[in-house]
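Now for one record:
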Amino acid sequence: MTQSRPRWFTEHGDGHADSYIERFRRLAAEGSDLAGEARFMDTLLPRKARVLDAGSGTGRISGELHARGHVVVGVDVDPALVDAAGQDHPGPRYVVADLATLDLDEEPFDAALLAGNVLIFVAPDSEPDVLARVAAHVRPDGVVVTGFGTDRGYPIDAFDRHCAAAGLVLEHRFATWDLRPWRADASFAVTVLRRPPAAG
């Protein structure tokens, strides 16, 4: 298992979390639509679902899913982002943790989400560990949804191999969160995966 630091820390200078937080606060104040991923997830979920927002950042998706009646736990490796999430989007529970070693003392979730290019910002070569640890927190027949840029250094074929190794089955893939059809040359991939149902 990799022990290197997430790219979120190593590829950005000091103060990046602060600028990231302020950016999303500004966008929210301007009335920008920041809920697209949450709307997508809501269509997949039963009412009052338990959702793991893996790489929750400033909490914008966690907060929106909470507002829609779901029980949400947001996890992020950056304490500054977790602190901002608690201030700006109260309601969900937020936890500081590395997704590659995630081990929450929680009942299994109905779904997990890795949005906002989370898989691009994890530690190099930790993607299989991240997918495996997130999948381990989802109940059988639950879903895992990811979204990331395909031109950011994580090839989609490698991603598919890592998902299969984590026991996840691909159900749907789109080029955008608003369901534009997937194309091989798409610059973004939204993927819906499922844990197989329990045997018997």
Remarks:
- Strands lie at 50-54, 71-76, 93-96, 109-114, 138-149, 169-174, 188-194.
- The first helix runs from residue 7 to 10.
- The chain has a mean pLDDT of 91.
- The chain has one domain: 7-194.
